[in-house]
Structures are given as structure tokens and as C-alpha cells.
Write a structure and sequence with these properties.
Chain lengths: 224, 375
């Protein structure tokens, strides 16, 4: 068991899912309430990482982070090194990779808040932002936790994007899934098995929390 | 102190859809301080109208003003956001915030005040509506009537410039209803603001209204004091809504100006068809003009012999076609020379008179039970 890779992965997942709360809430807010006619294009773009091969996503992120892109140059002028093959670069790639897993549960729970509550809040003198803070957010707790947990679990298990963006630098970009791959490559099956089991148990635990939390609100058919 | 004019002025048009198709809401009225009842069948556009006034929905064009201030004016391109309008709105489904207690719900609209002032005012309002003892409970933990009072208290505590109530009493039993109406009236005496009260219940119109506006398919079809509009309907929609079981096409046959009555022939004119004639109250109409007559089934009498010495002017011979029992009322459908009357009787009357299909009867209609409507 490679504890260095383990803690690196947990740290990455925690940072990414925390940042996704901050980034995902405004995006989900916009997706829920905007009446822009081309909104569906943005929805499709947000959902892309679900269907895109991680290598494709990783490739574009790598290009975007490199010293030829404006973003890469800006970061380089700021820090003196490129984002590619660093932990920070891994965070950026994972943010994109896990974005839909945060935004979609957020948007679903915002949209499930009864519109008449929003109208009532407005009639009682609250601006849309105040209403969002005092009514929509508190009533979307389950969706927020779900989005956090799903993006955490999703980031834990990522492989392709990490390989493309971060490479395989011990202590910097070597995550558990890469470590498992390495162990299998060197025919170290018992160690791979151990690490894989840990990842399986953690992922199952996180998903159990998600489904347990949504148990009451999920539909139960009349044929029960 | 209220401003000089607290009136609510509405003149708007809006296209809206209901299950029967799409309509043009096209209304123009002024709501004075006090109760104005918005009466109409479901789908008439009542809720759409309230949503426009509250600012939750935009009219296509027109003007909405309260207390002389424009809230919406399509010509001046003015449209005040809902949250800046200061108009109280109690939704049909109440829209209480489920994650807040009764007290937090009531205090919600007082966010501009200090915490102590907020608590003082909301507790005062909770006490006024007799829900002080359940202030720490959530909406899911209190009864329907209590929820209704929380919703009213929440809207009133903000001292709105106008109040919109969308069937706020619909789900309540009668005693609870009259209590709440009393609470509302008392509040309105101290706060002289216009209250628009939506209902499709004819009884509530009489219990509440200073003024009633009848809405049908998006248009105002009648407006006035409740007894004027509801008891002497000039429009068929009003008649159906206000419960006339019998509505007939009629032609004015003769005017008796000296007696204050006139004679109307029922049914469409056909040669060789013995017509039924009714003596009705006199209205401004010419002989030969066509109108409609509405008669409530409960205002009619049945006799099994030709009655004499009656003050009622209309006694029509006929035959019972059918009897239908509806709960404790018996509806008798009586054929009088081709015109069918629906007459409501008690079970005891049916048994005492031994009524049954085919039995010959006389239908007695008082002149002033006949309500005339334009065609």
C-alpha cells in the first residue's frame, strides 16, 4: 500500500470537491434560473466530461495549461513554472473532469425548490440573491452534499486525466489509480489488490452516504 | 398614516393559457381600500391577474399602480421588481417556507428591522392571529387552518400597500373561515389598503365583499355591489356561477308598466307550440326583445292540485319527468309544455306529496324569483 499516493489522492479529491462547491453553485444557479435560449449549449458543455474519454479531456487541459496558451503563460509569469505536471495542474484538470458531478445535483436540487416559495419570498421584499441564500440553499442541502460527495468520489478514481496532465511523479502527481497501474505493470498483484480494495471500500462508503441521504426524497412507487 | 390615495389601479392585457386553451386577460378596474372580490370559475384568469399585480408575471401591456405610484407601465417602460413592490400576496397553496418555524416565517418579511423589533412585531402578529403558542413549529407540524393563519400573518406583518389573497379560505371549515374573515376585517380597519380577494365560492362573495368583480375567460363581465351583481345577474356566466339551475331563452311579450312587471314567453318561438309564459319584474326592454331568465331551483314550489288564492303570479301545469335524489335534496325535473324546470324539494315533501315520474303537478314561480339577463 502506497500511503504517499493515497494521501495525495485524498488531498486532491478534498480540494477539488471543496472548490467545486464554490464554482458549481453559481453555475448551477445560472443553469436553473437563466431564460437564455442557448442555455442548453452550456448544459451540454458542462455534461461533456461524463461522456468524453478522459484522455481527450486531459489532452486539451494539457494544451491549455502549456506555455503556448494564454492561461499557461499567465500562470508561468505568476509562479515561474508551468501548470503541467504539477499538483496544481492536477487540480485544474480534476475540476473540469468532476464539474458535472457537482453541478448537476446542485442544479437538480435548486430546480426542485417550489417556485411559489420564490414568489412568496419576493413578495416579502427579498431580492433574488437573498431568496437564494435564505430559501433555495437551505432547501437544497441534500443536493449540495450529494454533489460534494460525488465529485469527491469521482476525483478519487480518476486515471486518464491525471496521466495526461500530471504524469507520474511520486508525491506530486502519482495518485492511487496510477499507483495501481504501476503495480500491475510490475506484476505486483498483491499490493495492487490491497490498494484497489481500499479505493473500492472508500468509493462504496461515499456513495452509500449519498444514497442514504437522498433516501427520503427519492421516489417510492405506488406499487410498493 | 396612509397616503391620500391607497387605490390599486389595474389596466392590463396578457395572453395566458389554461386547460381549455389560451385567453387574453384584458381587465381595467380600480380597487379601493377594503375588500374587492375577484369572482370567477377556475381558469378565468384570476391567478394570472394577481401574479401580474404582484410582479411575478409580466403583462403584455398596460399599467398597474398602487397609491398613485406606477408599478408597471408599458408606455413609460417601467416595471418595478416584485421584491420592491411591497404588495402582500397569499398564494393558493400558501407557500410557507418548510424549513422555517411559524415565527421565522412571519418574521421573514421584516429583514430590514433590528432583531428585537422583528421579534416584537412578529409575536404581536402571531398573537393577533391566535397562533402564538405554535410559533416554534414548522409548517408540516401544524394544522391547515393554522398554516393559513401563518400565511396571512406573514403577509400582513410587512404592512403591504395592497393585499392579494388567492382563495385563502378554500380549504377551511365554516367556523374557521368566519374567524379568519373577522381577523382580516379587523386588520383592514386599521390598515386601509385595497384587498383583492379571489374566490369561486358564491357564499364568500356575500360574506366579504364591498365590491365584486366577475371575471370570465379573462374579461370583466360584471362589477358592483355583491347583491347587485349576484342577485340580478345580467350575464349568463354570472348566473351559472351564482347557482341558477334554470336558465331560459325568453321573448318579451307584453309590458305592464303600471304593475312593474312584464310577460315573457319562454323557449324559442315556434308556430303551433303552446308557449309557457312568465310574469317577471319589469326591466328596460321592448316588446319582442330577447333575453334570458334565471330561476333558482330552490325558489320554486310544486303543488299536486291547481293552487288558488296564491300571491305568486305564475302557476304552470306540467308533468314530472324524473326525480333525482342528491344527498338530502330531491331534484324534480318537470315538463311544462315543452319547457323543463328543475325544482328542489325536501325528502319529506316528496313523500308527503307522493311524487313520482308521470305525476301531474303545478309549478309555482314568484315574479321576483325571475332574474333577467341580457342575451
Amino acid at each position: 500500500m502506497n500511503w504517499e499516493a493515497f494521501w495525495l489522492t485524498v488531498r486532491l479529491a478534498a480540494i477539488v470537491s471543496a472548490l467545486l462547491i464554490v464554482i458549481g453553485i453559481p453555475i448551477a444557479y445560472w443553469l436553473t434560473y437563466s431564460r437564455w435560449r442557448w442555455k442548453f449549449l452550456v448544459e451540454a458543455a458542462v455534461a461533456l466530461p461524463i461522456v468524453l474519454p478522459p484522455t481527450v479531456l486531459g489532452f486539451y487541459v494539457l494544451v491549455a495549461l502549456g506555455s503556448r496558451s494564454p492561461l499557461g503563460r499567465w500562470w508561468e509569469s505568476l509562479t515561474g513554472h508551468t501548470l503541467a505536471f504539477t499538483f496544481e495542474g492536477l487540480v485544474v484538470g480534476s475540476l473540469l473532469y468532476s464539474l458535472p458531478f457537482a453541478v448537476q445535483p446542485f442544479a437538480a436540487s435548486f430546480g426542485a425548490v417550489d417556485r411559489s416559495l420564490l414568489g412568496a419570498s419576493a413578495s416579502l421584499g427579498h431580492s433574488p440573491v437573498q431568496t437564494f441564500r435564505r430559501i433555495v440553499l437551505p432547501l437544497s442541502k441534500a443536493g449540495l452534499v450529494t454533489g460534494f460527495a460525488l465529485s469527491f468520489a469521482h476525483t478519487l478514481g480518476e486515471f486518464g486525466v491525471v496521466l495526461m496532465v500530471g504524469g507520474n511523479i511520486p508525491g506530486v502527481t502519482r495518485t492511487i489509480s496510477i499507483d495501481i497501474y504501476d503495480q500491475v505493470q510490475t506484476a505486483n498483484y498483491s499490493s495492487a489488490n490491497q490498494t484497489a480494495l481500499v479505493l473500492l471500500i472508500i468509493s462504496f462508503f461515499v456513495l452509500s452516504v449519498v444514497y442514504g441521504l437522498n433516501r427520503r426524497t427519492s421516489a417510492v412507487g405506488p406499487w410498493r | 398614516m396612509q397616503p391620500m390615495s391607497a387605490d390599486l389601479e389595474v389596466r392590463i392585457r396578457k395572453r395566458f393559457a389554461n386547460p381549455e386553451g389560451s385567453f387574453n386577460l384584458n381587465v381595467h378596474f380600480r380597487g379601493l381600500a377594503g375588500f374587492t372580490i375577484l369572482f370567477g370559475a377556475s381558469g378565468a384568469g384570476k391567478t394570472t391577474l394577481l401574479d401580474c399585480i404582484a410582479g411575478l408575471s409580466d403583462p403584455d401591456d398596460g399599467r398597474i399602480a398602487v397609491g398613485g405610484e406606477d408599478l408597471y407601465d408599458s408606455e413609460k417602460k417601467r416595471n418595478v421588481a416584485a421584491w420592491k413592490r411591497r404588495i402582500g400576496y397569499v398564494h393558493q397553496d400558501l407557500a410557507l417556507f418548510p424549513h422555517l418555524t411559524a415565527e421565522e416565517n412571519v418574521a421573514y418579511g421584516l429583514q430590514a428591522l433590528s432583531a428585537e423589533e422583528r421579534q416584537r412585531r412578529s409575536r404581536e402578529m402571531l398573537a393577533a392571529f391566535r397562533i402564538d403558542h405554535m410559533r416554534d413549529r414548522r409548517p408540516a407540524q401544524i394544522s391547515g387552518g393554522e398554516r393559513q393563519r401563518v400565511a396571512l400573518a406573514r403577509a400582513l406583518v410587512t404592512e403591504p400597500r395592497a393585499l392579494l389573497l388567492d382563495e385563502p379560505l378554500a380549504a377551511l371549515d365554516r367556523p374557521t373561515k368566519s374567524l379568519l374573515v373577522g381577523d382580516l376585517r379587523r386588520w383592514n380597519q386599521d390598515h386601509r389598503v385595497p384587498i383583492l380577494f379571489v374566490t369561486h365560492n358564491g357564499e364568500e362573495v356575500f360574506a366579504l365583499g364591498d365590491e365584486v368583480i366577475v371575471l370570465d375567460a379573462g374579461r370583466i363581465v360584471a362589477q358592483g355591489r355583491p347583491h347587485e351583481v349576484m342577485h340580478a345577474p345580467r350575464l349568463e356566466t354570472v348566473a351559472q356561477l351564482s347557482g341558477f339551475e334554470n336558465i331560459f331563452d325568453a321573448t318579451v311579450v307584453a309590458l305592464h308598466e303600471d304593475r312593474g312587471t312584464m310577460t315573457c314567453a319562454l323557449g324559442t318561438c315556434r308556430l303551433g307550440n303552446a308557449q309557457v309564459e312568465l310574469e317577471t319584474p319589469l326591466v328596460r326592454a321592448d316588446v319582442g326583445s330577447r333575453l334570458r331568465v334565471g330561476v333558482r331551483a330552490g325558489d320554486l314550489l310544486l303543488a299536486t292540485e291547481n293552487p288558488r288564492g296564491l300571491s305568486a303570479r305564475n302557476v304552470l301545469p306540467g308533468k314530472i319527468r324524473r326525480l333525482e335524489q342528491r344527498d338530502v335534496i330531491v331534484a324534480a325535473l318537470v315538463d311544462c309544455g315543452g319547457t323543463e324546470f328543475e325544482v328542489h324539494l325536501t325528502l319529506a315533501a316528496r313523500d308527503a306529496l307522493q311524487l313520482g315520474p308521470g305525476k301531474a303537478v303545478w309549478v309555482v314561480v314568484k315574479t321576483h324569483s325571475c332574474h333577467l339577463m341580457g342575451n
